[in-house]
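hi! just following up on the protien thing from before. the input was this:
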Amino acid sequence: MKFGLDNIRALTAALGHPEQNFRSIIIAGTNGKGSVTAMVERGLRGAGYRTGRYTSPHLLRLEERFAIDGTEVTPKVLHAAAAAVRDTAERLRSEKILDTQPTFFECATAIAFVLFAEARIQFAVLEVGLGGRLDATNAVTPIAAAITSIDFDHQAQLGSSIASIAREKAGIIKPGIPVVCGPLLPEAEQIVREISNAAGATCVNAMDVADLDGVLAGRELSLRGMHQRTNAAVAIALLRQLDDRNVAIGLPALRAAVTDVDWPGRLEPFQYRGAHV
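and the predicted 3d structure came back as:
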């Protein structure tokens, strides 16, 4: 495995830069990034936009990682995109353009870009796989970003301190784009703000601007657990940033993002021997 963005950039270039055919929102964090990705995609769809959602890992089927307009792609469509990426990777290896085999996640990310370009979506919401700075999803130039939380995770790859992990996750910040943050440890927040300031990127505290209770207006969150209130605040704040950048969202779409979103496997109720658990 080769750390860095060289492989994904070579793949996307050889594929004709499918990632440039839509606008992207990228979401990093130790916890909560999958839920926020699902909420933001639902909000964009509720506002009438064609969307792509790329998440990981999958629970049962690989197709779950790739959703277009809220529906996972079919095996046939996924197979065709995967074949295109495989053939491209093999050609780049034979031409010595790639000196290492692309990882599964690099290939999956390239597949997502191909699927989304072919579907002519308007917005892709991308969940970072690991870290941020060197993650394959970071090959895009996003219009907005979010960092949901920063704590100890994947220390072998990201470093053994909160500061080093924060620097890796803050690697998704690009010049001039807004970055929305959930509650961060002081050391992590300092790093994120330093990197944002250096890039000329607006750093927004989700808890200051989301007005979650106002959006809910007495309704319940779709996703269970008190932690989802924080995730919902990040999603709403991120959607508000898009609204401020001439991507019309509106209150009904904000509300749909947090009250009408499906994200299986996260405190999901089910029946066992006739009882709800």
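The longest helix spans residues 75-94.
The mean pLDDT is 94.
cheers
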